[in-house]
Amino acid sequence: MKAARIHAYGDPSEIRIEDAPLPTLNDDDVLIRTVATSVNPVDWKIRKGYLKSYIPYEMPLIMGWDVSGIVEKTGAAVTKFKPGDAVYSRPDIRRNGAYAEFIAVRESEIAFKPATISHIEAASLPLVSITAWESLFTTANLTSGQRVLIHAGAGGVGSIAVQLAKARGAHVTATASAAKLALVKSLGADEVIDYRCQDFASVAKDMDVVFDTLGGEVQEKSWSVLKPGGMLVSITDRPSEERAKAEGKRAGYVFIDPNAAILTELARMVDAGQVRPVIGAEFGLNDTAKAQELSETGRATGKIVIYVGHP
């Protein structure tokens, strides 16, 4: 099969498009013929070696931990899926990923693809949707009527977080650049702050939840917009528990694992018209390096997707 692999950590030039062996199936694995995958920051962070002390990868490595495709074959213990099923997944990042024509994924990590969208659109959803769901709902327990500030509302995670929070009945404030204000409004945000000409800390007040997708100075300033008892939940830098306690607020940090239950519920919401994918750029497998370079700029709108095969 064709795959985009790295043989060593480094810059995008390490990505090679080459022949690779088909994945070996365990009894609980499903072999998925990849139609599409997408790029997430974790991909190039792994390529650069940032996670090598956390996950000791064997080289060569196939990146890409979002997939939408067709079941090709199932392991002996698989009961839920059969060849021909359209599925999607955020698979285990400790295994080879989906920048390849085939990927082996545990049955427990797979959900049926939403019926009303394409594989390209479905491939954009798993990682960012699980991240937004676990941050807003599992960790921060966001409920109807509460106020939430979502940073980078036009980004991959932010664009889904805005929609999920709105579907839950929250009052949603988001930050974005001027060029993306209309998009974020169309996703359901009640208020959008142009972060380039407005100080969000002087506009947003009394938030129950702040969802930090940026870290650094943005995270530090976010404490001031929370009301007492409110939660700052981040997917970048772990917020200070000491500061949270001193201010009578709460801190949360999310690093996700596969979650097929969330993807099943998400598919229902997509098919009901409550969530829509936001695709900012599309590439072919041969241009995987260019796709990662765009992701590294931090300026992509929505998700960057990669075509791998045919439906």
Describe the overall structure:
With 311 residues, the chain is of the alpha/beta class. It contains ten helices and 16 strands. The chain has helices at 41-47, 119-123, 126-139, 156-167, 181-186, 200-203, 216-222, 241-247, 260-271, 288-297; strands spanning 2-6, 15-19, 29-39, 61-62, 67-74, 86-89, 102-106, 110-112, 147-150, 171-176, 191-194, 207-212, 226-234, 250-253, 279-284, 303-307. The radius of gyration is 19 Å and the shape is globular. It starts with a strand and ends with a strand.
* Rg on CA atoms, Å: 19 Å
CATH class of the largest domain, please? Alpha Beta
State the low-pLDDT regions, or none: none
Portion of residues in helices? 25-40%
| CATH fold-level topology of the largest domain | Quinone Oxidoreductase, Chain A, domain 1
- List the helices and strands in order: EEEHEEEEEHHEHEHEHEHEHEHEHE
Continuous helix count: 10
Strand content: 25-35%
How many domains comprise the coordinates? 2
Give the mean pLDDT.
97
Q: What is the first-to-last residue Cα distance? A: 16 Å
- Largest sheet report: 7 strands, mixed
Brief synopsis:
With 311 residues, this protein is an alpha/beta fold. Helix content is 27%, strand content 28%.
